[in-house]
User: Fold Tripartite ATP-independent transporter solute receptor, DctP family from Halobacillus dabanensis.
Amino acid sequence: MMKKSLSLLLVMMIAGVLALTGCGGDDEASGASGDGKLKIVAAHNQTSPENPYQIGMEAFKESAESSDANIEVEVHAGTLGTSESELVEKLKLGAADVVLVSPGFMTKTGIDEIDLFALPYVFENYDHWENVVDGEVGEEMASIINEKSNNDFKLLGYWSAGVRHYYGKKPLESMDDLEGVKYRTQTSGAIADYWEQTGAVPTSVAWGELYQGLQQGVVDASENSYPYFVQENHHKTDNGKFVTETAHDYTTRFLLINGKKFENYSEEQKEAIMKAAEASVQKEREAVNKQEEEYKQQAIDDGAEVNDINRQPFIDLAKPLIEKRAEEIGAQDLLDKINELK
Assistant:
């Protein structure tokens, strides 16, 4: 009788240990911490606390943590890596849960359709961009990202990084002024092809090294939106003080979460995360729009010279390139829908 009781007790103890182990595994898979909270690591690659990325991530954190879903969000501003490849690798491996990346990097993961959102002059203005990403095209692109990444990436929302302009050692009065200019931009693919056709020489310089590159003449010019290049003081260099408003790219950024981990969250947690994503989209876009004007004025106050240019020749040059790229990646239907929204 005693032996049977001991055997029964031993079986019950083993079952209890296995049950606890199983529970611990579920917590680990879902990102739950020891106190039962779901801990989410959210990261972007910009280091300035004033950057719209940081404002968006803080909005995500505030919304998620104020929900009833028992979520804690840890925001990293460049501290998990300043390159997007690092962030995406961490997202895949589970070292980060939410990250922000650009179309240029996403195409390197084999999702070619994303190129459409980065081609010069594919968007007519900010309203056009917003109608595209917040409508049917944006939904289709989200599905493509999820399917082609095998659920490694689930899109939470579309952020903006403003509208990109030329800035360099001389103003542009016409496209001819780009002839022979060493221009910091992508050095391969459709975007590089476009700038080569303008006469510029696409040149690769890491973002963190660009201030020095402009100062030392490694490049004659670059391109970005006001909040980004003014916060980095590029406009204070001799090769960055002339800004020509080419408005060639109404930029898109993708707020991503690991889709496989997201599936393991409770319904309450999923709902809280999606609401937090919506809050972050609104705050980040508001910050970009506000800062576009603020940092343009700051650049002027600091001595930068800003001029307009007739964009039509640039737009006309881009049209066949956009059509060609859409055909190459089998995205003509998506392009047609984008054009219909103009």
Summary: The domain at 38-340 is CATH 3.40.190.170 (D-Maltodextrin-Binding Protein; domain 2).
